[in-house]
Amino acid sequence: MDFLNAIIVLFNFTVIPALAYGSQLALGAIFVTLIYAVLRFANFATGDMMSFGTMFAVILTYYFQSLGFGLGVLPTALLTIPFAILMMILYMLIIDKFVFSYYRIKKSPPVQFAMVSVGVMFVTQALIRIIIGPSDRRFLDGEKFIIKATEFKEMTGLAEGITLKSTQAITIIVTLIVVSIMFWFLNRTKTGTSMRAYSDNEDLALLSGIDPKRVVLITWIIAGILATIGGVLYGLDKSYRPFVYFNNMLPIFAAAIVGGIGNPFGAFLGGYVIAFAEIFVTYAYKRFISYLLPEHLEPDSLLQLLSTDYKFAVSFSILVIVLLIRPSGIFKGKVI
Amino acid sequence: MRNYKNVIAAYSIMIFLIILVGIFQSWSIALTILNYCLISAVMTIGANIQWGYAGLINFGIMGYTALGGLAVVLVSVEPVKKAWQVGGLNILACIWIIVAIIFVVKFILNRFDKSKLRNYSVASVILGGIILLRVTAAPGIEAIESVDPAKTGFLGGMGLPVLFSWIVGALLAGSLAFVIGKIALGLRADYLAIATLLIAEIIVSIIKHEEWLARGVKNVIGLKRPAPYEIDLQTSEWFINLVAKFNSSKLNLINSIADKQEALNQMVIDASSVYVKLCFTGLFLTVVIILLIVTQKALYSPWGRKMRAIRDNEEAASAMGKNIVKEHLLIFILGSAIVGLAGAMMVTNDGLFTPGSYRPMRYTFVIWVMVIVGGTGNNFGAILGGFVVWFLWVEAAPIALFLINLFTSHLPETNAVRVHLIESAPYFRFLVIGIGLLLIMRYRPQGIIPEKIIKQ
Fold it and tell me: What ipTM was reported for this prediction?
C-alpha cells in the first residue's frame, strides 16, 4: 500500500504537471524548429508570437462570454482558437511580407535574420501591451477539475490523491491530436514532402519545380496554428501574462535544441525532456521517500536537489550540456 | 575633416535634443538621461568590440551587467562581521570545494582517454561535489540569512571605495567570459546567441536567489557614492553661496527677505541634485573618453586589422597563421569586461542593487539595438547608438502621450479609445525601438555611422 501511495505522490506532483507543461513546450519547440528548418533562422519573437495569438483568444473569449456562447463544461477558449489562429496567420503573413521576405530574397546570413526577429519581437510586444495591457488575465471557464484529490481518495481508499485539472487533460489531448496531424501532413502529403525537400536542399527543391512561395506560406500557416494552440493551452493552464510568454521562449529554445533543431520529432520529445528535467530536479522528494522507507529512517530535509527558483536554470544547464557534448541534439535525424 | 562631418552633425543633434529636454522638462531629467546615455555608451562599446570587431554574437549582456552590479555590492558595502562569524567558514569551505571539483574534473579529463567511463566519472564527481556543497553550505547560509534579515542577512562586502568596484566589476565579468568563452565559443553563430542568452539567465537567477551573497531580491540600498550627497551640499556654506551667486539677478527681483530665503532654499535643493548628477556625468564622461581613445587606437592597430580579417574570413585568417580560437576568446573577455564595468557604473549611479530588475529585454536586446542602430564596427557609431536609443527609450512615452493627446483631441475626455491609448502610452517605447530597428536593418544595415576602413 505504501508503495502505491509513493507512486501516486510522484505521479500527482511530477508526472501530470510535467506532461502538461511538456506538451506546451513541445508545441512551441516544433514552431521554433519548423521556422529554423524551412526559413533558416532562430526566431527570437517566438514567445511573443505565441502571446499574440493567445491575446486574440482571450479577447474573443471575453466577447463570447458576453454574448452567452459557451461549450458548457469545456472552456470557451477552445471555441475561439480557430478565429485566433486565423488572425495569427494573417499577422504572420503580414510580418513575413514586410519584414522577412526581403532578407530571404537577399539570402542574408542567419544572424541578420535573428536581429530582424528581435525587431519583430519588440513590435509584437508593443502591440500586445497596447491592445490588451500587461496585466495578468485568467480566461478559463467551465469545469475546473476532472478528478479531485478528495474524490480519488474516497474512490480508492488510498492516503494520497490524484488531481487532474481539466486544462491538463485538454492540453495533453489537444497536443497529441495537433502533433499527429502535423506529422501525418509532413510525412504523407505531397505538400509536406515538398516542405521537407525545400528544407533539405533549397536549390534542388527549386529545380524540381517546388514553389518556394507556397512552401513559405504553408510553413507560416502551420507555425501560426502551433503558436496559437500552444499559447492558448499555456494560458488556460496557468494564466495569460505577456511577460511570462516572453520568458517561456527560453525553455522552448532549449527544448528545440535539445531535441535537435530542425527536427520536429526531436523538438516534440525535447519539450518533454525539458519539462520532466525541470520538475524532477526541483521536486522535493521527502513525501515520496517517507512512504518507501521505514518510519525510523524518515529523512529530515526536503530532499530537493535544487530549489524551485532554479527551474529555468535546470533547463538551460541541460541545453548547455547538450550543446557541448552533442551540438546536433539528442535525437539526430534528417532535417524536418 | 570632411570624413567626420556626419559624426559631428549627429552628435550635435543629440546634444541639442538633450538640451531641449532640459529646457522643456527639467535639467535634472536631462542630466539623468545624459548619465544613462553615457552608461549605455560604455555597454555598446563592449558589445561593439565583440560584434563589430570580431563578429561574435553575445546575447548575454544582461549577465555581465548584473555581475558588474554585484561587484559594487561586494566591494563597497561594509562587511557584516556577525554574518562572517556564523557562516563565513562554511562559505569559504564551499569555495575550496568548488576549486577542488574543478581540479579533479580537469585531472580526469587530462589523464584518461575519451571513454564512457570517463564521462560517468566526471558526472559523478560533479554530482557528488554538488551534494557535498549543499551539505556544507546549508547551515552556513541559514545562519547568515538570519542575521538581522531586514537590514543585512548577507555577508556584506569589503568596505572599499566604490570606484574600486568598477575595476572589480570588469575583472569579474571578464573572468566569467573566460569560462563561458571556453565552453561556448566553438558554437555556430545562432547557437552561440541562444547559449549566451540562457547562461545570462542562469547568472541572474543565481544572483537573485542566493540571498547570503547580495540579499537577492531583497535588494541592497544605500550604496556608497563617489559624489557628494545632496543633504551635505544643502547645508554647506560654499554651495549655498555659489547658488546665490548664480541666481543673484533672479533673487534681487524678490523684495521681502522671507520670500528671498524661501526661493534660495528651493534653488539650493534643485541645484544640489543637478550638482550631484554633474559629478556623475564627469566621471562617466571620463570613462567613455578613455575607452573611446583606447578602442579607437586598438581598431586601427595591427591587432584591429587582424580582428577584422578574422571576422571577414576565418579560413583565410587561419591560413595566414592567426590563432582564431585564442583571438575570439580574448575579444570575448575584453568586450564582456567593458560591459561589466558599465554594470558597475550603473549600480553606482542608482545607489541600489536590484537583481529583480535584470531582464533580457532591457539589458540585452536594447543594447543590441543600440549597436545595430549606431553602426557596427565603428566606436563613434556605437556610442551614438547608445545615446539615440536610450533617448528614444526614455522619451518615447512622453512623446507618445503628446501625440495621442494631439490626435484624439476631438474626442471627448471619457472616450474609451482615448483613455485606453493614454494608459498604454509607456508601451509605445517598444514600438518605436522595434520599428526603428527594422527600418535601420532594411534601409541602412551598416548603421547611422557606418564602419570606416582607413587604408594604410
Answer: 0.89
